[in-house]
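In this section we walk through a basic example: taking a raw amino acid sequence and producing a predicted 3D structure, encoded as discrete structure tokens. The instruction is simple. Fold the sequence below.
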Amino acid sequence: MLNNIVAGLGALCSAPALIGILLGTIIGLMVGSLPGLNDSITMAVLMPMTFGMDTELAMGLLIGIYCASACGGSIPAILLKIPGTASASVTAFDGYPMAQQGRAGKALGIATMSSWVGGMVSAIVLLTLCPFLAQQSLRFGPPEYFMLTVLGFASVVGMAGENVGKSIIAIAFGLLIGCIGMDPQTGSARFTFGNMYLQDGISLVPMLIGLFGITSIMELFESFHGNEIIAALKEQKNKMTKVELPNWKESRELLPTWAQSTVIGNIIGIIPGAGMIMAIFMAYNQAVTSNPDKKFGTGVPQGIAAPECANNSVVGSSMVPLLSLGIPGNSSSALFLSALTIQGLRTGPALFNNTPDVAYMIVLGFLLSNIIMLPLAIGYTSLFATAVLRMKREILSGIVIVLCVTGAFAVKNNIFNIYVIIAFGLIGYFFNKFHIPQSPLILASILGKMMESNWIQSMVFSHNNLAVFVTRPLSCALLVISLAFIVIPMIKSAKDKKKGVAKA
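The resulting token sequence is shown next.
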């Protein structure tokens, strides 16, 4: 393992990798600070450009964007009460009141330091767990991989809360998309409607560009007449805000919150389909519970530290199931899966066994990106954040449109992919309007094919005996965990309803 780490470190120290991480971190901070954009949109738009890039440059670029965008989202949330990303929505609860009290620099400092702490811990978790899980996955056969996909769907349903029905709709739609193309067993075409471009199925890259890029443009169009950002900037009197990191005494007070939030963020990150939103709300609620003497929503430092630490903790840990098992933890890690495929790489044990230098370069890249993110975030926030926020949305939308169309066409050099991004842009737009989560759709479209192929192999292996899923220890254990993900939330929900009835 040590030799592999050294090989990965050598690849990371190459000029393309270092340039990619540095450039990606800067782009991530900028993207995160622009309301309407996020890491998923940016990665989806830029991904086709990685076709002609070196592997080190492409991976470094995406790593930097993913790590830094979660940190950048806190800037407009604190200064303007307008979250740059969804993961920073809770940060505004206490960040904006603190800014209104004349402590914007302190609020930004707490957010930056908390993001750095969460990111560093998640990078260490990634470095520790990934090789171990990849090694263990060599024991997996078709039944285990099938139950692993079941676990992914079970975690999505179990974590959906009151949106179980909507999550199931998204999963069903994603599975339907995954069925488009050639039947792996018979070789016959399914749901292609005589279109030759659909015989290979719907390409993941155009689908993601549509869901994130085109959808974001449509939502930006809706907000053109809104002047909330301009008004908020005038309220700030266009002053540059100097970031003030927490001192030693403040850091000691925030340490319990950081510890709780990193644990929550890393656990949520490893669970497929859970995502940052769940992590930030759980971390914030835990901070409120742990500090009953503080009035949250009025500028409490723990109210900033908890969500910012949690969302960055999800970043590295969400890559654990992707790199070790081939299952994306969230939308952003699904984009990494596409990028690795573009580079001709496979996730899982094959990544660590066949290309250990690339595998460990990616893992160590998350650590390096978080290291350099702290000084870059301080400099960017203090000098450039307000100027970037003044960028006109019309110009921003035009840039995104051009990149989306160009990127979609470049995937296979055919115009059909442009139709795909438009179609999925409309789907993503209506999903957002009806508050249907997109992550289950993406997860299902990826895992659906994996589930089908492993089901077929399991049935051939066992001579159509379903007992194969319970007689093999690992498969049975995964089945039990899957059931637990579904049953435990149902029991908890039933208990909460009984308590509500009793109180009434």
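Looking at the output, two observations stand out. The longest strand covers residues 181-182. Residues 145 and 453 are 10 Å apart (CA to CA). In the next section we compare this with other chains.
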